[in-house]
Amino acid sequence: MPLVRIELFPGRTHEQKMEIAQAVTRALEQTAGVPPSATTIMFSEVAPSDWVVAGKPLGAPKPAGG
Question: 4-oxalocrotonate tautomerase-like domain: which residues (predicted)?
């Protein structure tokens, strides 16, 4: 039972996420023979300020109270 965790910036619609999930599920079925009922997908939205590459955040944190 594959668990696919997709981490991305906020901003995708529910419909876009469902399209991504369907494509990933199909890919696992076609390439690895995994039945769709065995695939679980989790989306985690991460603020750009919490996504750090080479010690630097990809976005500025939101001001407090904003």
Answer: 2-60
Q: Domain locations in the chain?
A: 6-42
Residue 20 contacts residue 6 (beta carbons within 8 Å): yes
pTM: 0.82
* Dihedral pair phi/psi, residue 17, rounded to 5°: -65, -40
CA angle 33/36/40 to nearest 5° reads 110
> What tens digit of pLDDT does each residue of 7-24 get?
999 999 999 999 999 999
Q: Which helix (H) or strand (E) holds 6?
A: strand 3-8
